[in-house]
Write a structure and sequence with these properties.
356 residues; mainly alpha
Length: 356
């Protein structure tokens, strides 16, 4: 009786959606490595990848083949189980965060069935993202500690302390946003940013919470361990940081997880502050095309915004030099957290003033 009550079509829909999202995430992350090198080359007046395929487009595939066939080395004094668990956990948590992102509006078929372009529309979506991001730090920490290498351990300790410091400011900056939206659901936050302009003001949250967006963006750089916050793998100090002892696909998992995180973090940032899949004149477009075509357009809009945000992350990496570690911690504790608290108080005062 239990098997008969299961909605198999719903399960198949979700499995297909999960497969598409994971495939897209891995595909975008793969070519983000190519894009990163092309952006760096453009900013430094050189060509970048140009040999493997036209415009070097096969370079990420060549890199993947190289990592697969490289010799795999596990240090004799390393904790073998945790050494393998570290990169596996980093890759797993990088992929899990995509489950609550609304990639487009629901598709209503002629039969009346509604297909949601979101794996899980849970009412605590933001808390889920924070939980997954927090667990992801364990992958770096375990890898650095299990390597039995002082440089790796120092890099993992830096990563953990950096994540804790900037997650506080990131969480407080989001409290102000949640006070305005009144929900933790990412789908509802996107719905409240419908279109682009309404009642004489922008609907996107970046116009309503500009300071909160700046704080969240800076914290995102720190959470992703990207320059100028790449202290956990500072080559000049720690050789390669927490993944110094790693080789083959275990190293590949760490490097690839960074780009998956970059893609998903950009998508979440766009969802929270830049309207997600919403765009100007979307109601007029919806009235002139079929629901399926409209949903595809919305997905493409979200991906375009996300790619633009990824490019912004890359431009910053090749523009601003790396911080010293004391500067990094001072920025988190002495600047961003107080600013986030002030922003939260100002937002609360404005809400009370408007309600009264």
């Amino acid at each position: 009786m239990l098997l008969l009550s299961i909605d198999w079509s719903f399960i198949i829909e979700k499995l297909i959606l999960i497969s598409v999202i994971l495939g897209a995430s891995l595909g975008v992350a793969t070519y983000a490595t190519w894009g990163e090198r092309k952006v760096a080359a453009w900013m430094q007046d050189r060509k970048g990848p140009s040999r493997a395929g036209p415009f070097g487009l096969l370079q990420p595939i060549a890199d993947g083949i190289k990592l697969f066939f490289k010799e795999e080395i596990i240090p004799n004094d390393a904790n073998r189980f945790l050494f393998i668990l570290g990169p596996s956990l980093a890759m797993l948590t990088a992929c899990m965060a995509s489950a609550v992102v609304p990639w487009g509006p629901s598709i209503e078929l002629e039969s009346g069935r509604v297909i949601a372009l979101q794996v899980a529309d849970i009412n605590i979506g933001i808390l889920y993202v924070f939980g997954v991001v927090s667990v992801g730090v364990y992958g770096i920490m375990l890898g650095g500690w299990a390597s039995n290498n002082k440089y790796s351990l120092m890099g993992s300790v830096r990563a953990a302390s950096q994540a804790i410091s900037y997650e506080l400011a990131m969480g407080i900056s989001l409290i102000a946003l949640l006070m305005m939206t009144g929900t933790l659901s990412l789908a509802e936050i996107v719905n409240q940013q419908h279109g682009f302009w309404e009642n004489g003001w922008f609907t996107w949250n970046v116009a309503k919470q500009p300071l909160g967006f700046i704080i969240f963006l800076v914290c995102a750089f720190a959470e992703l361990n990207r320059a100028p916050f790449d202290l956990p793998e500072a080559e000049s100090e720690l050789v390669a940081g927490y993944h110094t002892e790693y080789s083959s696909m275990k190293l590949g998992f760490y490097l690839f997880a960074e780009y998956v995180n970059l893609f998903i973090s950009s998508a979440i940032l766009i969802t929270l502050f830049f309207g997600g899949y919403n765009f100007p004149f979307m109601d007029q477009v919806a009235g002139s095309v079929s629901p399926v075509v409209f949903s595809i357009i919305c997905v493409l809009v979200l991906l375009t915004k996300t790619i633009m945000m990824i490019l912004f992350f890359m431009f910053i990496r090749w523009t601003i030099p790396r911080f010293r570690y004391d500067q990094l911690m001072n920025l988190g504790w002495k600047s961003l957290i107080p600013l986030a608290l002030v922003n939260m108080l100002i937002t609360g005062a404005i809400i009370i003033w408007v309600l009264n």
